[in-house]
Structures are given as structure tokens and as C-alpha cells.
Amino acid sequence: MSNPERLSPNGRRLLDRRSFLGTAGLSTAGLALTSLLDGDGLLAKDTEAFSGKTPIRPDIDPNNPYAPRKPHFDTPAKQVLVIYLPGAVSHVDTFDYKPALTELHGQKPPGIPEVTFEGPTGNIAKPFWEFKPRGETGKMVSDLLPNLAQQVDDFCFIHSLSTDTSAHPQGENFMNTGFTMEGFPSFGAWVTYALGTENQELPAFVAINDPRGLARSGKNNFGNGFLPAAFQGTDFNALNPPNNLHRPGSLSAGADRDAVNLLERLNARHLQQYPGDANLAGRIASYELAGRMQTSVPDVMDLSGETEATLNAYGVEGGSELRGQYARNCILARRLLEKGVRVVQLFNGSDPSGGNGVTNWDSHANIEETHAMQAEIMDQPTAALLADLKQRGMLEDTLVVWATEFGRMPFLQSNGTGRDHNPDAFTCFLAGAGVKHGFSYGESDEFGFKAAVDKLTVYDFNATILHLMGLDHERLTFYHNGLERRLTNVHGHVVKDLLA
User: Which band of pLDDT confidence, cut at 50, 70 and 90, is reported for residue 59?
Assistant: First the structure.
């Protein structure tokens, strides 16, 4: 029989010993759970109090999301150029010299897996191009990239990178957004969210896509994810300018201006009805920027003022049609940086499903042919772009990132002509503002199979790039779905050995 309920003189229920102990136990468990969740960073936190640190920037005015903002700390780099090569460039055929591959060519020593990403493995294969010492540093680079090879004294190589996936779409996502899944902000979106831009007539972040189309992960490579819509990359290239830049011939300049003025008043009135709606304000700001781009973009895309010497240096003429188109993209990248665009992302390669034949660096068969085709497109224009930036003094405040999603295996596939995906070792390089010149960091093993010395993750790579832009990767956060999200998730450290 249960105990009768005990009441106080004023009619309130009194706790007996059993009830008191049960309530106290539940309370203690709740406090313990709260402590555990807090320790794992799973509780919502005020931005000011998060980890005892102040926010990366003041609150962004949704009516002016592109206004320039100060970085966490002063650094030489004010802009960044990301040259991204989808498809996975073979490090052992370009920048990561491994004499052991020549010594063991045609053999299958113990330790080689029987099966990799795309199937059974073959034998060790020496580089398909000869390596030679280059520059004053004597850096060994293959003949596949003769123009970039001449500039190795300006580069900061990282030979010990590794990634979390061996699939291209997920690899592109991981390199460009910090996550293998879709829906997360890209590197360029994070940077422009933090810093805004100096030029209010052009986008803060421009993605110059390959003439053949988008890479495998498409617009996710330069998307805003859950950041405000204003911070997504604006994609166009020298062949395809943004849509709707030109007004119809039947519309006079005065009528066009009147229509724009009316639209501005209607947008302002609409925004007053929804105060604090950052998404609406961001969309309106984007539309207003699109209006300003009608005059700014045609000017920056007009290459008629470039000298013949410049066009020849970039390789606009005299090579394949694709090289000429990519060369124009490289000139466009330089012109955008000259105009103060904060982030320019230049792609060399696209989704194979978007065109005929090989359209990127993916080389499961006939690597000698496919890599040579891509190198003919990429090498001369990219080298000319970097040389142009240097001679104009722009590398003093521009950081250059040359990257791909993973490497390729030191042994062949069973077909005997291609190299499979290698997530355990690959090479990227940095150049320009804030980084050491003529420097190599980390090592893969004697075959180039796995990162062996000073292994770095993509998180470390991105943390270091953000640091070079004056941003603390642990403080550049955005509250989303109960978490303080960041480009590096909960990982990453700055590799200070790379800093000048």
C-alpha cells in the first residue's frame, strides 16, 4: 500500500525520502549530461562567450554585406587566388620525386594492396616524365610542367598531405568546404563572410569555371552553404559572362535607370516589412550588386587592352583551343584581383559527364596521354599568371593556393596504363604573400604511397590558409543547427613552418 500524500500546513505537497532521492538523482544526472555536452561543444553558446573568445567580426549589416571588415590580425595577404585542379594530379609524376619508383619499375614488392579504389592493382611504375633539378634550390620537377618548373624558387611545396576520402565528389567537397558532405560553406564563402571586399562594384568572391563546365561537385565548390546567400561565389569565365549584363536594345539608358530606381524603392519598402531578415536583405544586396555589375564586369572582361606580349606569354594563341580559353580565364583572374576582388577561384578541369572524353586530371587509363593533355592546357597560362602577378608586385599582398583533391598511386592499375586514386599522399603548393619561397615541407614514403614525415590533413591545410589571410580558424564560426560551425570542423592546426 502506497504512503498517503503528505501536505504542509499551506497545502503544498511535501517530499518523502524516496521522492527526494529520486528527484536529486535526476537533477544530478541532468547536470552531468549538460557538462558532457558542453565539453563536446554540443550546447548552443553566445558568440561572445564561445571558448572565451570574441567574435571574428562585428555584426554584418545585412544591407551592406560586402563592406570590408578587419581580419583577426594583420597579415600581408589581403586577397587569395585558389587554382583548383579537379581529378587528382599525380604527385609522383609532377613534383614529388621518388627514385625508388625507377629502381622497382615493373615489380610488385610486398605491401602493395591487391585492390584499390577502382579495382586490382598492377606493378610499380616509374614516372612517365623525366625529373630534373630546377631553379637555384635544385627542386626536382618533371618535364610534364616545364613552365611551372621554372618558378619553383617562388613556391612553398607541401608533400605530406592526406585526405579522408578517395572519391572525387567527396574529395572536392572536403578540400573546398572542409566536409565530404554537401551543404557546407566553401572556403571562399568563409573568407568573404569574414572580410567582405574592397570593391563594391564587383563580387567579393568569383569562381572562374573551366571552359568545359563545372567540376564534379558543381556549385558546392564555391557555394555559401548555410552562410547568408550574399557570400556564395559568382561564377563566370572569359567565354561565358554572367547572364543579363546587357540591357535590351529597345530600352534606353534613362528608362533603365528609372526602372532600377523604382525597384530600389520597392525593395526598401519590402525590407521594412521584414526587419532583421538577413536572407531577404542579402538577396536584395545581391540583386543590387548584379545591377552594378552591368557596367563593372564588361570592363574587367574586356581583354582588348592587353598587349600582344601578354597574350603570347599566357598562351592565348598557338596551342589548343582549350588552352586559349583557359589562358583567357587566367588573364581574367589577374584583372579581377587587380580590381580588389577578395577571393578568385580558378578551375582547371570539369566533370567528365559534362563533355566528351577526358575533361580533368583523372587518369585511370592512358595517364601519359591524359595528364599530358591537361598539362598542355594548364602549365603555360598558370605559370604566366603567377609571373604576371609577381612582376606587377601583386604577390606582396596576394596568396596563391595550387590544389587538387588527392594524389595518385605509385603503381599502375591492372590495365597497365593508369594510376588509381591515392588519398594517403599528395602534393599542393602555396606562393605569394606570407609564405616561404623555395621551400618543401613534409615527405611521402620512398614510393610516394603514404605521407610519412610531418603528415598534414586537409584541416591543417585550410587552417594555415585562413591564418595567412589573418583569420583564426577556431574563431571564424557560424551558429547553425545548434553548433558553432567552422571550415575546419573541430580539427586542424596552423603549420607555422610554412610561414615566411
Answer: low
Q: Are residues 369 and 494 in the same domain?
A: yes
Shared domain check, 284 and 183 = no
Looking at per-residue pLDDT, the higher value among 469 and 25 belongs to: 469
Q: Pull the grid cell for residue 418.
A: 593508369
pTM of the model: 0.84
Number of Cβ within 10 Å of residue 247's Cβ equals 13
All cell numbers assigned to 432 = 605569394
Question: What are the φ and ψ backbone dihedral angles of 119, each rounded to 5 degrees?
Answer: 140, -160
264 and 221 within one domain: no
- How is residue 500 written as a grid cell? 615566411
DSSP-derived 3-state class of residue 301: helix
Q: How far is residue 95 from each of residues 144, 272, 427, 436, measured CA to CA in Å?
A: 10, 56, 7, 17
Q: Is the dihedral of CA 133, 139, 140, 146 positive or negative?
A: negative
pLDDT tens-digit map of 442-476: 999 999 999 999 999 999 999 999 999 999 999 99
Radius of gyration of the chain from its Cα atoms, rounded to whole angstroms = 27
Beta bridge partners of 162: 457
Domain span at residue 7 reads 1-43
Q: How many domains does the chain have?
A: 3
